[in-house]
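Exam revision sheet. Question 4 asks you to relate a sequence to its structure. Input first:
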Amino acid sequence: MVLIVEKIPHISIIVLNYNGLRFLKTCFDSLYKTTYSNVELLMVDNASDDESVRFVRKNYQKVKIIEAGGNIGYSAGNNLGIKHASGEYVLLLNNDVEVTPGWLEPIIEEFQSDEIIAAVQPKIRHMINRDEFEYAGASGGFMDIYGFPFLRGRVFYTIEKDNGQYDENRDLFWASGASIAIRKSVLDEIGGLDDDFVHHMEEIDLCWRMLLGGYRLRIRTDSMIYHYAGGTIKPDSFMKVYWNHRNSVFMMMKNYSKKRLAYLLPFRFLLDYLVVIKAILTFDFEKTTAVLEAHKWLIKKFPIIRTKRNDVQSLRKVDDGSLDHLMLHRSLAIDYFLRHKLTFNDVWQ
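Answer key, structure tokens:
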């Protein structure tokens, strides 16, 4: 694709790294082959001890290295990179990613098609099983009203092959943190990633805030990347369950109006405790503890959550109903586990 514009917009690509040496050659080799010309490459390193910094400094001189001084997590690490970025757009990219040469042109084209587009993601396939969608991004994200996210191409544990069934470029509820391009001016307006999320769903919270600010999020399926996925925290581990249950409720408490929160949050807690009961009956005490610890954190941090909620609500420009077309208005968990609706097309009817 040839992008014809009067001025080629500047985009800053921020690669967050923590002990990702085994991924960095594939990542930066592919970034160096990007055909889009006006690109700034940055790597934020969260105090790796695996020679990552030395390797990049020696082999990729065009990459600006920002050393965080400690493992400050996904949100704080990317926020640090954003502070150093000079681009009109910033693109947050996981280190376990391989991009294709012409991936950036469609993304820039999408931004320039409408000024209220705040973020764009590419289609994301799995790096190993390259004809399958990837767990954390696939072909764009959505959410049910109880805070359970899903994707065109992945619902809970079911990952589909990419047969072109989700090639429509369309509005999203959330774009994947594995590769999300964001208009810098929007970040200046609504703020960056919330550091208190630490890991998981921080990009969904950010996207929700952008939507409440009256912006749109898009998928460009003619932009393609490959993501290894699971390179940092393993699926179904204690920490994965903990972060997912903690942060999904956290973002509901921040972003919903009082009216919606009052009747949705109790049902969400009921769903969580059904998970606990099932885990106890199957002697999965690790999962039980993870969910209970997540709820413990929410109670302990309620004053902070209330302050953050007030900040979000003060910037709100649209009501909850304006986002209804991007949300599933029933329980995704019930659809999947009880009704056996296993794919996006099954549930999005």
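Marking note for examiners. The two ends are 34 Å apart (CA to CA).
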